[in-house]
UniProtKB/TrEMBL annotation:
A single GO BP: regulation of gene expression
Protein name: JmjC domain-containing protein
GO molecular function, one term: histone H3K9 demethylase activity
Domain spans labelled JmjC: 84-117
Xref: SUPFAM superfamilies: Clavaminate synthase-like
Signal peptide residues on this chain, from the entry's feature table: none
GO cellular component, as recorded: chromatin; nucleus
Length: 117
């Protein structure tokens, strides 16, 4: 599925965020409906939307200690010292993993509504 196809699906009446009064109302709707019509989540997509020649805001060129793991040992750990893309829609849920808690990480939003933590 392409990014354009995913966006079209996520924006459809079946998958879009329902009308709500506030975040508490939206959270109630989430828990009430999470098992019905489950969301489609694009997780762990290796890659980046940044041109490889760009230094500014390039997640693959942050200049961290993890760069030495790759340089010194030739070890590339996808999603840890390489960029991953995630595609979400209403009701997609992402659990924190060990690396999210134990290592430095960065997230940013390319497009759409902000995450709710």
């Amino acid at each position: 599925m392409s990014v354009v196809e995913y966006h079209k699906l996520a924006s459809s009446a079946k998958y879009c965020t329902p009308p709500h009064f506030d975040f508490e109302d939206l959270e109630r709707k989430y828990w009430k409906n999470i098992t019905y019509n489950p969301p489609i989540y694009g997780a762990d997509v290796s890659g980046t939307l940044t041109d490889g020649t760009v230094d500014e805001w390039n997640i693959n060129r942050l200049g961290t200690i993890l760069d030495y793991v790759n340089e010194d040992y030739g070890i590339s750990i996808e999603g840890v010292n390489t960029a991953y893309l995630y595609f979400g829609m209403w009701k997609t849920t992402f659990a924190w993993h060990t690396e999210d808690m134990d290592l430095y990480s960065i997230n940013y939003l390319h497009f759409g509504a902000p995450k709710t933590w």
